């Protein structure tokens, strides 16, 4: 597997895209880019600066402040993957909360936000040897990626996974709250005007509702070997 390729992983929220992407990147020695973390960091910035909140979203203020938002991935050797830094501060934990999840799809709808991040993402993957996951990687960021995966699972399965994950982190949430968040994000992601979540024509769809992480990894690794 000497030939380096670009691996684009798209799909719905809580389908385990990031987990799979991290596994592949570590195994292959590739760069991993979590584009969802980038959108989450901007959502966190908007929350911290009273740009978005319960019942309000001042989109113009966010657009005007985009030049002041600096995003950076820094590799954490202890964890084995890169963490997200927002304006020099590690926000990896803060961006994974249910509160940020409730706003991130709304922030990702903004054309100026997507343009800013897509430009950065394309730069990160220009030398190949990259695994990138998100909503529009195979359709917008890397339409020529050698391997495109589209991940899906039932909303209830994804909500249960997300609920269990949040409980393990100590977050006090209800399953119903998480399921509603999953369904709302699905609707926004698939109905936004700018690069909505769709399966690329040449993407391989994987429904992992009944797959273990190991089974999923082995399945996709075989696909990588076919391409390399």
For this entry, give a set of tags:
228 residues; alpha/beta; 3-stranded antiparallel sheet; 9 helices; 10 strands; 48% helix; globular
Structure description:
The chain is of the alpha/beta class and 228 residues long. It starts with 5 loop residues before the first strand and ends with a helix. 48% of the residues lie in helices and 19% in strands. It is globular, with a radius of gyration of 17 Å. The strands form three sheets. Strands 2-8-1-9-10 form a five-stranded parallel β-sheet. The protein has a three-stranded antiparallel β-sheet with strand order 5-6-7, with helices on one face. Helix 2 (35-48) crosses helix 4 (98-108) and helix 2 crosses helix 5 (111-124).
Largest sheet: 5 strands, parallel
Helix content: 40-55%
Number of helices: 9
Shape: globular
Count of DSSP E strands?
10
Radius of gyration: 17 Å
Terminal CA distance reads 5 Å
**Which spans of ≥5 residues are poorly predicted at pLDDT below 50?**
none
Chain-averaged pLDDT: 93
Question: Helix/strand/pairing class, anyone?
Answer: alpha/beta
Trace the largest sheet across and list its strands.
2-8-1-9-10
Q: What portion of the residues fall into strands of 2 or more residues?
A: 15-25%
What's the SSE pattern? Answer: EHEHEEHEEEHHEHEHHEH
């Amino acid at each position: 597997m000497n030939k380096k390729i670009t691996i684009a992983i798209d799909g719905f929220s809580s389908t385990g895209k990031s987990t799979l992407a991290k596994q592949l990147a570590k195994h292959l020695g590739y760069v991993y880019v979590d584009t969802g973390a980038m959108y989450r960091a901007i959502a966190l910035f908007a929350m911290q600066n009273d740009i978005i909140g319960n019942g309000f979203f001042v989109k113009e203020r966010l657009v005007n402040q985009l030049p002041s938002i600096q995003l950076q991935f820094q590799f954490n050797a202890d964890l084995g993957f890169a963490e997200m830094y927002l304006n020099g501060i590690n926000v990896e934990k803060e961006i994974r909360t249910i509160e940020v999840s409730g706003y991130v799809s709304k922030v990702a709808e903004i054309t100026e936000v997507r343009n800013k991040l897509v430009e950065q993402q394309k730069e990160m993957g220009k030398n190949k040897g990259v695994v990138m996951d998100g909503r529009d990687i195979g359709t917008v960021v890397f339409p020529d990626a050698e391997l495109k995966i589209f991940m899906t699972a039932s909303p209830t399965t994804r909500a249960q996974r997300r609920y269990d994950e949040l409980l393990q982190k100590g977050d006090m949430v209800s399953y119903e709250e998480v399921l509603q968040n999953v369904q709302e994000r699905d609707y926004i992601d698939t109905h936004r005007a700018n690069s909505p979540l769709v399966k690329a024509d040449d993407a391989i769809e994987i429904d992992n509702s009944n797959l273990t992480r190991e089974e999923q990894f082995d399945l996709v690794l075989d696909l990588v070997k076919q391409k390399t």
